[in-house]
Design goal:
The chain is of the alpha+beta class. The chain contains seven helices and five strands.
């Protein structure tokens, strides 16, 4: 292991991301559980998983490269709860992370993009996980009971969204891009 380590030091250098990945892989091989991942590796894994979660899972499952489990990445990528309207947590995070007040004037030029899409009716969607859970139509008896209960309470027929719109900040001369509402 010592010979391999010395050889890897000469091949990878001392202050490179490849060297960091090599060190993290060595440490992960020694510690099966409770691995403390370097923040740069966490960011790289989040970027990789956001491109393709199935590719990320394939790399993890094969064991070719040891990567943090999705449960480790989740708190880093889901720091703000999704809400309707403008997400002020995201706006604060963008200003803080991108240091907008310290950017050169050219890089502070942004545009606001929006995209709207039609939502399929009759599905139950988890706001927290972003996944479709099931269908709202549970059969005639369950529907009739839910309708009866709603009428007894005096509730009106709930309005169902048919479209969803996303607002996004996009840097014209910078790498800033983030959803804000």
């Amino acid at each position: 292991m010592v010979d391999c380590d010395a050889e890897m030091r000469t091949v990878l250098g001392t202050e490179t991301l490849a060297r960091l990945l090599w060190e993290q892989q060595k440490e992960s091989a020694l510690k099966d559980k409770q691995m403390r991942w370097h923040p740069a590796i966490i960011r790289w894994c989040i970027a990789l998983r956001s491109r393709s979660s199935s590719a990320y899972n394939l790399i993890r499952q094969t064991g070719f490269i040891r990567l943090p489990p999705p449960s480790t990445l989740h708190p880093y990528s889901h720091f703000a709860n999704p809400t309707t309207g403008f997400n002020f947590d995201m706006l604060e995070r963008i200003v803080k992370d991108y240091k907008i007040s310290q950017c050169p004037e050219r890089e502070s030029n942004i545009c606001l993009l929006f995209d709207e899409m039609k939502v399929k009716a009759g599905l139950v969607f988890s706001v927290r996980s972003g996944k479709v859970i099931g269908f709202t139509d549970m059969g005639t008896v369950a529907n009739e009971l839910a309708e009866f209960e709603r009428k007894c309470r005096g509730d009106k027929e709930p309005e169902i969204a048919s479209h969803v719109m996303v607002l996004m900040v996009w840097g014209i001369f910078s790498r800033l891009y983030a959803p804000v509402g």
